Amino acid sequence: MDVMDEVDGMDGMDGSSYDAGMGATPREPTKLGLWAAAAVVAGSILGVGIFIGPPQMASALSSELAFVALWVLGGLVALCGALSLAELGAAMPRSGGDYPYLAELYPGGVGFAAGWLEITAVFPGSLATIAVALATYQLPVLLGPAYDISFTAFGHTAPANVLWAAALIGVLSGCNQLGLTVSGRLQIAVTSLPIAVLAIGGALVLSGALGAPPPTPGHAGPADPAVYALAAAFLPVYFAFSGWYGALYVGAEVERPARTLPRALVGGTLAVLLLYLLLDAVFLRTLGMGGLAEVGEAGTAAASQVLGDRGSFVMAALIAVAVLGTLNGTMLSGSRIAQAMAVKGDFPRFAAKASPRTGTPSAALWIQTVWTLVLVAIGEAKTLLDYTVGAMLLSGILMVLSVILLRKRSPELARPFRVPLYPLPPLFFLAANTAVLAVLAIRGTMSVVVPFVWFGLALLAHRIFRRTGSRKD
Asked: What's the gap between Cα 75 and its chain centre?
């Protein structure tokens, strides 16, 4: 199977499984091969997080050892989460992300609340965070004077980064509307190029082939970081590795999932982890902890340090390409959750329909787009990041915990793939995520706590609506 066959095979993710009950003709999907599945995993992980995260971390830390250790820890946590979801996906293939699993495995509306959290926080929040970061750091370098635009309405002026972020969201929504084959080909194209070029460029810098001047002096974080600082520094790392969550979206779409899925997950996650560590080494060599703490985005700053203005432009272009891949994959996955919820009656029914021509869940896609644009307009990048990561932590904990619950509830269930060294990987994942959440809650990082409040309100709403429906019956 060649690359184009694998891309075309992504049609199985286009929502056709929902069409049969709505008048459309279901199609028999072609499964993803190993390389396509690994590209989806790697492309979902690689994004702007590795470039905007290190400066935030350097502001909280002064130890290079702690800095690197947190990236290794983040990679291990992501790997443990992905392996856990691989077992769940191989044993219970489902469409629509994690919503159908939570709805089936948890009582009392947990699936409903988690689904609403994902379609209002995790996916739109990720899209908004990434789009705003791209529009703030890379587009000014790439567009030059053409970047400076503004729009005034009702006495308020939208800055250029908000307008460009909104334009990116709109264009990519249009690409997804054209169908999965188009968005799938775009995904593979924007995954391979940045990984290859960033890896080669980073290796050249570290080898001395590209000379780097001494690190820029600056003010780093505290000399002896507290637990709070470590937890805060871990948030951008978690966000940078958030693509492990995408494992659930390829689990039911790969050939021989028991064999292909673990290889794709391990290979894709490890490849990005190694690339991240390579880039971190480049950042430390060219900027130092002090220099990192004083820049907004590490990739372009490091490239400028080594190659001047030309390096800034090249790095900005590479980052932009990688970020487009993350935006595209996130947009594709998020719309499928709303579609799955609509099929089950937990979201307005019209969102379940797919385009008869392209298979795209059009209503769900554009609902997601509108809400993302709202977040882009009202949220600052730091607040959006905390808000999104808080929602991701909660959803990830629920999903990985469901692997343990399913083992206890259905020990006889056929599991083509089992988590190695069980129960250590899921327990490690749960411990790491719970510890970060506890520290942040004690610290009072409200933007991280907000998703939990929203989750509780959704649970309450589900209970009220269910009681109301029962009385009517």
From this structure: 14
Do the Cβ atoms of 216 and 288 come closer than 8 Å? yes
Predicted TM-score (pTM) of this structure? 0.76
Q: Domain locations in the chain?
A: 3-7+18-466
Three-state DSSP class for 422? coil
Based on the number of CB atoms within 10 Å of its own CB, is 469 exposed (0-12), middle (13-18) or buried (19 or more)? exposed
Show the CA angle centred on residue 351, arms to residues 348 and 354, nearest 5°: 155
254 DSSP β-pair partners? 32
Q: Which two tokens stand for residue 251?
A: 């689990």
What lies within 8 Å, CB to CB, of 16 at 6+ separation is 24, 26, 27, 29, 354, 359
Distance between CA atoms of residues 169 and 125, nearest Å: 12
Residue with tokens 């699936």, as numbered in its chain: 111
Q: Find where tokens 């250029």 sit.
A: 160
* Alpha helices for 64-179 (secondary structure H): 64-91, 99-105, 110-117, 123-137, 139-143, 160-177
Q: What span, in angstroms and rounded, lies between the C-alpha atoms of 44 and 37?
A: 11
Q: Using a CB cutoff of 8 Å and minimum separation of 24, what contacts does 198-205 make? A: 198/275, 198/278, 198/279, 198/318, 198/322, 199/275, 199/278, 202/275, 202/278, 202/279, 202/281, 202/282, 203/278, 205/282, 205/285, 205/286, 205/306
3-state secondary structure of 106: coil
Determine the 3-state secondary structure of 264 from DSSP.
Answer: helix
Dist CA 118 CA 250 (whole Å): 18
The burial class, CB within 10 Å (0-12 / 13-18 / 19+), for 408 is exposed
Band the pLDDT of 222: cuts 50, 70, 90: low
Q: Where are the alpha helices (DSSP H) in 287-308?
A: 288-293, 298-307
**CB under 8 Å to 33, separation ≥6 — which residues?**
1, 5, 6, 9, 254, 255, 260
163/154 Cα distance (integer angstroms) = 16
Residue with tokens 């769900």: 364
The tens digit of pLDDT for each residue in 164-178 reads 999 999 988 888 777
CATH of 3-7+18-466, one of 1.25.40.10, 1.10.150.120, 1.20.1740.10, 1.10.540.10: 1.20.1740.10
Confidence bin at 313 (pLDDT 50/70/90): confident
For residues 361 and 83, the answer to whether their CB atoms sit within 8 Å is no
List residues bridging with 435 in a β-sheet.
Answer: none
Helices 34-45 and 180-207: crossing angle in degrees, nearest 10, is: 70
